[in-house]
Amino acid sequence: MTVDERTRTATVTPGRAAEELELGRDEFRLAVQLGLVRTVPAGESGRRRVERRELDRLKAAPDFPAGLRDRVRAVGTTEAAALLGITPERFTRLARTGHVSPVRFSLNRYRAVVWTYLAEEVAGFGLACPALLTGRLPLELRERLAAQEDLRPRNWRARRLGVLLRATDDPWAQAAAVASMLDPVQLAEVVDDPYERAHLDRLRPPEPPGMPVRAASRDIAERLTRADDPDEILWHRLSLALALDEARAAQAAPHPGDAGRSGAAGERPGVGTSARKRRQQAPTMASALLPPALPHALRLPPVRPAAAAPLQPSAAGAAPSPATATSAAAAPVPASTPAWVPASVPVPVGRPAAPERPPSRPAARARLLDRLRRRRAASGGRVGGRKRPAAWP
Which of 13, 104, 139, 218 has minimal Cβ neighbours within 10 Å of its Cβ? Predict the structure, then answer.
């Protein structure tokens, strides 16, 4: 029996576990999120299962199943206010000032954010702070409400980050959990290495359950998952910097060419070393990319021989003398040679020097007219009233 088969035998699927624990689908998902039900990875698929002994532990509790169901009971604003005996408006004010932390959020059909709270925590708040349930709110809370303060998104993010950090022992996964609280601009400022950012993106935790699919609603939900307060952003930036130091000390992020390395932080060559190597190899790479024979448009101008040994044109089709060819080949490459052309490209020799500048337009026009006159005289004028095609000389 393989390891995966033994794991599947000793574990059950989340659906089967929820059925045995007498929980609904959302209640079981919330129980896993709060850490009340522990799960284990199953093979390489990334899915998680529940061990049989974990189910036995939960079933052995004296208040099972009512106690487990009460601990994962989630209520909205109206139900939470009813539990405390106050109006929904007053409960919203208390939640906005951070006295009760939401455990989940969703968007209704009007794209309004609907927060959900744990009934157990709401009841505990009522027992701990009875003075806030009656009478006028303290002046400090009224001033914070007048300043449009709302700590519900921040408290929800703090709760979610705590759950993500407790779910893994991998330092890079924990750093990825902290990085998920920052927007890409803030993340790029803290993590300047693109390979480390890519590694954090691969380890990014999954989206919270209930994320909307539509674009407009999804934009609102994504803004809620990222820090927006300056103090919160600064806190997560510092936390990410510390988490990265621990992760780098344990194991370096994978970089290209590190497949055969052990992964220690000190064994990876620095970025500056790689850049220097690329600059040193640039001419060789350019020479390899250029073809042996350049196209006509990229052909180098012919090498001018020395003035003491002028190149005399020979008869048609005759090759230059060996002495002339040798002196031409030994001449240096002219200054007009482009800088990107490597020295290994052969330079054509033994031909008359081409003019450095094309002929002026009046001279070319005169030659064209003269050529047309000769053709017209030879053919006896136009034929059929058509113009003969003229090729540029």
Answer: 139
Q: In the sheet that 104-107 helps form, which strands lie side by side, from edge to edge? A: 74-75, 113-118, 104-107
> Residue 86 has what DSSP assignment?
S
Q: Tell me how far apart the alpha carbons of residues 186 and 336 are, in angstroms, rounded to a whole number.
A: 48
Question: What SS3 class is residue 334?
Answer: coil
Determine how β-strand 48-51 pairs with β-strand 40-41. Answer: antiparallel
Is-above-0.85 flag for pTM? no
Tens of pLDDT, residue by residue over 37-78, are 988 877 666 678 999 999 999 999 999 989 999 999 999 999
Closest by CA to 148, choosing from 106, 188, 86, 97, is: 97
CB atoms within 10 A of CB 1: 7
Q: Is 127 within 8 Å of 178 (Cβ atoms)?
A: no
Please give the pLDDT value at position 325: 43
- Strand order through the sheet with 40-41: 11-12, 48-51, 40-41
CA atoms of 104 and 213, how far apart (whole Å)? 17
Residue with tokens 């709060």: 34
Residue 321: CB atoms within 10 A of its CB come to 13
Give the DSSP letter string of 184-237: HHHHHHH---HHHHHHHHHTPPPPPTT---SHHHHHHHHHHTS--SHHHHHHHH
Report cis status (omega within 30 of 0) of the bond before 65.
yes
Q: Cα separation of 351 and 328, whole Å?
A: 10
Spatial distance between the Cα atoms of 242 and 236, rounded to a whole number of angstroms: 10
